[in-house]
Write a structure and sequence with these properties.
Layout (H helix, E strand, L loop, with lengths): L16 H4 L3 H7 L1 H22 L3 H10 L6 H9 L18 H14 L1 H8 L3 H9 L2 H16 L6 E4 L12 H5 L6 E5 L2 E12 L6 E7 L5 H4 E7 L5 E6 L10 E12 L3 E3 L4 H37 L1 E2 L2 E2 L4 H31 L8 H9 L2 H4 L2 H7 L2 H14 L2 H37 L6 H11 L6 H12 L8
Parallel strand pairs: 1-4
Antiparallel strand pairs: 2-3, 3-7, 4-5, 5-8, 6-7, 9-10
Helix pairs in contact: 2-3, 3-6, 6-7, 6-12, 6-13, 8-9, 8-12, 9-16, 12-13, 12-18, 12-19, 13-18, 18-19, 18-20
The protein binds flavin-adenine dinucleotide.
Length: 485
């Protein structure tokens, strides 16, 4: 697209945050720094997506189709230098200190260029989010320290979140379904910790992960009552990567099957004790589902941009395809739907900043503390030891339950599921409709439209299938289903 006078999406000047949701103009008068940060995030992300991802995404996709273990380290290093992979970590601790709103724009811009490349950069913060939602001070600090040190040394550091099993996908994300699931994993309590056996599958970054966060039942006969969350370094004896999957889409991001054979996890690496695993999974989903929806929005936007580019250049007789009224109406529909979902995504991000884990970094005492404490101390072992003290841990946990109680979590699963279904169904619908417009010629891989189509399909399946998300939405909207009719 470089040689054209094409000024849409990634090629349009940024920021256009306020044009996306004019209501934010009002918020800008109250919180100018908050909006300015989102605008700066959008500008940086758009430039990165246009200048670094767009010229390479097709080549990366082809290389990964050939060899699913291929990984584009150069692109990852460029993103790492800009700290895009540690964006939510407070600035004073070495990150960018980006709000959920700023992160939403980061996700939309990168995914509009390539969903796979974008996930390699942004999904890594899920490890941090997993710690943030629990507010266990030592775990949060440990993760922040690891991420910041790795970023500074340009060392790779990946987390993966392992929930899905060969015999249970949807089941592990839903209480009722989990009660009947047949787990393939088991965590047996032994002296000083647990021994873990079994298999997890379709785990994003599983093959690259330095640390795996896994939900595993202590009693496979009672999975819901005994599900626990474990923090497992990939170097643990008995842990192995069985294979990297060949997927139809999102190929740049690796998805792997993981084996655990008598892996020992010491008590200090039990993130959530038996019985709390499902709750923790729901806490993570309450954040991540919304971001996957915003990823779907990005894919839809990318497909639209690619479709318009094709239609501008395609001649039908003496006219351009874009001059056909039916084509303009189809694109108008897509623009309308994309804008509606973007408003829902921005609303979700604003709510995360106001009422969910991000609120933690915005607490006045914490903000003031970060301001006056030297960076050296914030990243020191001494602070980590302090954070491990029983008193501080208890205070952190109490704070979390006050800040983000269980009802809030379920509300966010509800909002997040709506954004997830809306965004990823939008991606599939837009990519499909663009494919109809451009026909077989436009589906040549050079235009990227068939890739948008493949990527869109995958997003409807993970982070809970869209069917499972719909069930969550209905259950939340009508908690007393039996009284409905
Ligand atoms: C690219 C990609 C990345 C992924 N990354 C991760 C990851 O990082 N970590 C991780 O843990 N997992 C990951 N997954 C796995 C993903 O979360 C699961 O594929 C998803 O949860 C669906 O599970 P499943 O494939 O086992 O399908 P199943 O659960 O077997 O579902 C099959 C069908 O049955 C329906 N169904 C299932 N149960 C119910 C029910 N109770 N009621 C009604 N309908 C039901 C489903 O909606 C679906 O239509 C990833 C998958 C992909 C494709």
């Amino acid at each position: 697209m470089e040689n054209q006078n094409f000024c849409l999406g990634l090629h349009a000047p940024a920021p256009d945050v306020l044009e996306s949701l004019p209501g934010l103009v009002r918020l800008k008068t109250v919180s100018p720094k908050y909006i300015a940060q989102a605008e700066a995030a959008q500008t940086l992300a758009r430039r990165f997506a246009r200048d670094e991802i767009l010229p390479r995404f097709l080549e990366i996709d082809a290389a990964c189709a050939e060899d699913p273990t291929h990984f584009d380290w150069e692109l990852w290093r460029q993103a790492n230098r800009l700290k895009l992979n540690i964006a939510p970590i407070p600035e004073k601790m070495g990150g960018l200190g980006w709000s959920a709103l700023a992160n939403a724009f980061l996700v939309e811009e990168l995914t509009s260029a390539c969903m796979g490349c974008a996930s390699n950069i942004t999904f890594n913060t899920f490890g941090l989010l997993g710690a943030m939602v629990e507010c266990q001070t030592d775990i949060i600090l440990n993760i922040i320290h690891k991420m910041v040190h790795a970023q500074r040394q340009e060392k790779q550091l990946f987390w993966s979140w392992a929930i899905t099993e060969p015999s249970a996908g949807t089941d592990v994300e839903d209480g009722e379904a989990m009660a009947a699931m047949q787990p393939s994993t088991e965590a047996k309590q032994v002296d000083g910790g647990y021994r873990i056996n079994g298999t997890k599958c379709f785990i994003t970054n599983g093959s690259l992960a330095d640390y795996v966060i896994a939900t595993i039942p202590a009693d496979p006969g009672q999975p819901r009552e005994s599900m626990a969350t474990f923090f497992i370094p990939a170097e643990s004896e008995g842990f192995s990567v069985a294979r990297v999957e060949r997927k139809c889409g999102q190929k740049a991001s690796q998805t792997a099957e993981l084996h655990f054979k008598d892996v020992f996890v010491p008590d200090e690496n039990v993130w959530e004790p038996p019985g709390r695993g499902l709750r923790h999974t729901r806490e993570i989903l309450s954040i991540t589902r919304g971001f996957i929806g915003i990823g779907g929005l990005g894919i839809a936007r990318g497909a639209l941009e690619r479709g318009i580019y094709f239609a501008v250049n395609k001649k039908i007789g003496s006219r351009r395809l874009i001059d056909e009224k039916w084509v303009q109406m189809a694109f108008a529909d897509m623009i309308k739907d994309i804008n509606s979902v973007r408003c829902a995504g921005i609303n979700f991000a604003l709510a995360l900043d106001a009422c969910h884990a991000w609120k933690l970094f915005d607490l006045l005492p914490l903000k003031a503390g970060l301001k006056v404490t030297p960076e050296r101390f914030l990243l020191s072992e001494s602070l980590y030891s302090l954070a491990r003290s029983g008193f501080i841990k208890k205070a952190g946990s109490r704070l979390k339950h006050r800040l983000v109680p269980d009802e809030v979590i379920e509300n966010f699963v509800y909002y997040g599921s709506m954004v997830k279904v809306a965004g990823t169904d939008l991606a599939a619908a837009v990519a499909g409709r663009v494919a109809d417009i451009v026909g077989i010629e436009g589906m040549d891989r050079q235009y990227g439209i068939e890739k948008s189509f493949r990527d869109a399909k995958v997003t409807q399946i993970y982070e809970g299938t869209n069917q499972a998300n719909r069930i969550d939405i209905f259950k939340h909207a009508f908690p007393n289903e039996e009284n409905l009719f």
